[in-house]
Each structure stands twice: as structure tokens, then as C-alpha cells.
Design brief:
By secondary structure, this protein is of the alpha+beta class. Helices cover about 40% and strands about 25% of the residues. The protein is built from 4 helices and 5 strands, in the order βααββααββ. The two termini are about 15 Å apart. About 15% of the residues are buried.
Length: about 110
């Protein structure tokens, strides 16, 4: 099993943040099915202020670039969800060029 930690900011607007939270309280069924279909076994997103932290556990064969592209191509609703979420997000200052959700480095584990 692979594990990933990623971070991104929500746009600095209370209404946008609330919309993001509302959508995640009622995630579209196609999106959940699509994420599971590409090998994501567990996905958790935490929020502090406007910063999000996502933790994912995936199958060993999971490759983010390949499999997220496959997920988006599998169903138009998946791409629609991604575009909608992206409209409410912005990369963190430490993100690499062209990186949306910034990959975090694991620095401690028990």
C-alpha cells in the first residue's frame, strides 16, 4: 500500500470555503466510484483555516499522474468535479511549478 500527503489552499473567501465543504458533504457518487476504481482505498481531507491536507492510501500499483488522468477520462462527471473543485482552490506558496496539490514529504512515522 502506498501513502500520500498533499496540501492546497482554498481561495480566501468564506462563501467559497463553505461551498467546497458542502460539496464534500455530498460527494457525487460517480466521483467516489471513480477514485476507488483507480486504486484509492482511503482518502481523508483535513482543513485548517483555508489550508487543506489530503491523506491517501492506494494500491501499490497506483501512479498519481497516470491514474488521475485515467479517472478524469473515465467519466465526464469526474472532470466536471475536478474543474469545480479547482475553481475554489489555489496552490500553496511552496508548491512546485505546475503543481496543484503540493506533494508533502513524510518526515516522521511511528
Amino acid at each position: 500500500m502506498k501513502q500520500y500527503g498533499r496540501t492546497i489552499n482554498l481561495k480566501n473567501d468564506p462563501q467559497t470555503i463553505e461551498r467546497y465543504l458542502e460539496h464534500h458533504r455530498a460527494i457525487w457518487p460517480e466521483v467516489e466510484r471513480g477514485l476507488k476504481a483507480i486504486g484509492i482505498q482511503r482518502m481523508l481531507i483535513w482543513k485548517l483555516g483555508r489550508q487543506l491536507f489530503m491523506f491517501m492510501e492506494t494500491i501499490d500499483e497506483f501512479e498519481p499522474d497516470r491514474d488521475f488522468a485515467r479517472y478524469e477520462a473515465a467519466n465526464p462527471r469526474n472532470r466536471e468535479w475536478q474543474d469545480l473543485m479547482a475553481s475554489m482552490q489555489e496552490p500553496v506558496p511552496d508548491a512546485q511549478p505546475n503543481e496543484w496539490w503540493a506533494e508533502m514529504k513524510l518526515v516522521f512515522k511511528i
